[in-house]
Amino acid sequence: MKKKILVGLFTLMLALPLSAYAATDIKKDNNNEITFPATETTINGVPESEIMSPMDVTLGPYFESYTPNYNGRLEKFRQIAAFSHDNTRSSVIFPMSVTITNSTSQGSEWSGGVSFTGEIKAGIFAKLSATVSGSYKDTRVTNEAVGITGGPYQVPAYKTGYINMWYAAQTSGGTLRTYTVNTSNPSQRYYKDTVVNLKVFKADYVDVHSEAWFQ
After folding, report:
1. Which residues contact 42 (CB under 8 A, 6 or more apart)?
2. So what's the pLDDT on residue 36?
3. Beta strand residue intervals within 57-202, DSSP E
4. Residue 115 in contact with residue 61, Cβ under 8 Å?
5. pLDDT tens digits for 111-125?
6. Is the pTM of this model over 0.85?
7. H or E segment at 3?
């Protein structure tokens, strides 16, 4: 019996310091409150901090108007073909005629401090059509000039005859007005005026210029 009492006392002595230490540790915390990490709100299972907020985006530029200051025709815009005939060994005149049998795709020219989107080009074409009459386009397609003829030209005796052919262009220059909007307030427009110049093609017919000379 004495051995059981001694073991019990020894067990009690070991337990007391641990209890005292635990009580002391709890008192160090202000107001004896235990704080746990906050649980982050989720949206559709995704933590809120990982969801990107939408940013204000600028859209445009969009066409508003085009006011031309000049319009004209450029005869020698894009060369199509070049022909020649050597008549230097003949004492008679040679009638020289040519026909285009193939032609490459050719593009127009646009200059100015703006991005010429399809929507902006369409607006300028519409204004150009109303101002100059006719219709206009951006590109001459492959073989569009096939079948067009030049001449006849009379190559003198003992001369070489030359014929060059070009796509002519409609030229125009003026003030382009565009606008941009922000997604935060799309009803508010911000306008910009830009001086532009262009060389484009007739769409209602193939405008070709030819020129001949002898030497």
Report:
1. 48
2. 54
3. 58-87, 94-99, 106-107, 109-111, 136-137, 139-140, 149-155, 159-182, 185-202
4. yes
5. 999 999 999 999 999
6. no
7. helix 2-27
